[in-house]
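Q: What does the assembly look like in three dimensions?
Context provided by user:
Components: two
Sequences:
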Amino acid sequence: MITSTANGQVKHVVNLMNKAKYRRENREFVVEGIKMVLEAPEESVEKIFVAESFVQSHKSGLENIQWDSPKMETVSDNVFKQMSDTMTPQGIMAIVKMKESPLSEVVGQEKAFVMVCEDLQDPGNLGTIIRTGEGAGVSGIIMSKNTVDVYNPKTIRSTMGSIYRVPFLYTDNLQETIRQMKALGVTVYAAHLNGNNSYAKEDYSGKCAFLIGNEGNGLKSETTELADKLIKIPMEGSVESLNAAVSAAVLMYEVNRQRRG
Amino acid sequence: MITSTANGQVKHVVNLMNKAKYRRENREFVVEGIKMVLEAPEESVEKIFVAESFVQSHKSGLENIQWDSPKMETVSDNVFKQMSDTMTPQGIMAIVKMKESPLSEVVGQEKAFVMVCEDLQDPGNLGTIIRTGEGAGVSGIIMSKNTVDVYNPKTIRSTMGSIYRVPFLYTDNLQETIRQMKALGVTVYAAHLNGNNSYAKEDYSGKCAFLIGNEGNGLKSETTELADKLIKIPMEGSVESLNAAVSAAVLMYEVNRQRRG
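A: Here is the predicted structure of the complete assembly.
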């Protein structure tokens, strides 16, 4: 059992939790909680850490956990608390290998339905878009280089496991990636406050992608220019804009509604 | 100028920021930032606090602020930081009088469109529902007694000013309030994982209300039983549920879409 925070594995976890650069260098991230650990694809799991008291209280109950696995490491409760990102740790976390998808997988085999996030900054917004995206049936998610790190513990938490199942990629050149999608026959819609078409009047039965801009500044003009159409979500009252994850959800579920027929 | 955190007004603000009970007893709450202070209804504003450096940098620029008002109080930058709930304070905040609406106003004059929140716990979710609600054109919002305090600084921030404009009320007896709405001819829909009707197949042209449950536990069964219809938002993949604010947004914008025609 690991009983010291000076332990190398513990330091590795803490660094993975706190430093995006360290995560990128190691191509690993950390997930916490029973649900997130159990849903992780087995081949991607590098290591599982359980708190001493978690073993005592769950060893007989949780049969899905391979307690004898060489990947399993027990740590004292105090050390686990130091490793955890949450106020009330569940007592289980795992190191998981990063996996990004190629553009062909994000665009999908049949009906492309892609959310494109430009420089989103709020980890909760990004995580919620991934979660809602799985629910609405997106084929994948594309993020600009300056979008918040999808492997941030807060983002991972708010995906509720969808991070394992929704194909996604980061791109160094968002505009080029959008051009590549257009070449694949994808119609690109920009959600824009100056859009003159209501999102609900468009036909999303074909391949489609939606550009979602930064929370404060919206889409860059050079990105907006690549869109085939500017659409807007109508707003009553004095509302100037909607939350980014809410806008994305409204658009995604309109596609879902239309495609279900 | 106030230069000490021992000042009675400073203590009052700090208590209003941090204690829901103190807010209720005083029937006051605090809003922060230029936008939130300027959008507050003038008659509801009790006091405005500005940081010394805010006065220096904005006195000539911000003409909407009544700098000579007896309600205006300047505080030193250090004291303002102590009063603020944010990491990077803008330098302006106000004490605002609480105002709840009667049920008749929440239900609205013509077309009732009410969101009913039962025991929502996340301040950001509640604030986002109020903001999206204004955008989608709700007539008002009803909250159970155990819903998170709408005057919590985090909730207020995430409403982006909609808190001043969307009628709302707390009720001690949610079930009784739902019965009263039904007596007014409102059709009540429960968003429920066991719903067998897709939300998008219903007709929301008439008076309608939606019951939204707690993030972890959903709606109580005795509340669900009062609904005229259980509806669900279809989900692809392995998603078990959507975020509460996202679910509410999808429902609200479907009503908006149908009513715009």
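Follow-up: The CA atoms of residues 127 and 159 of chain B lie 4 Å apart.
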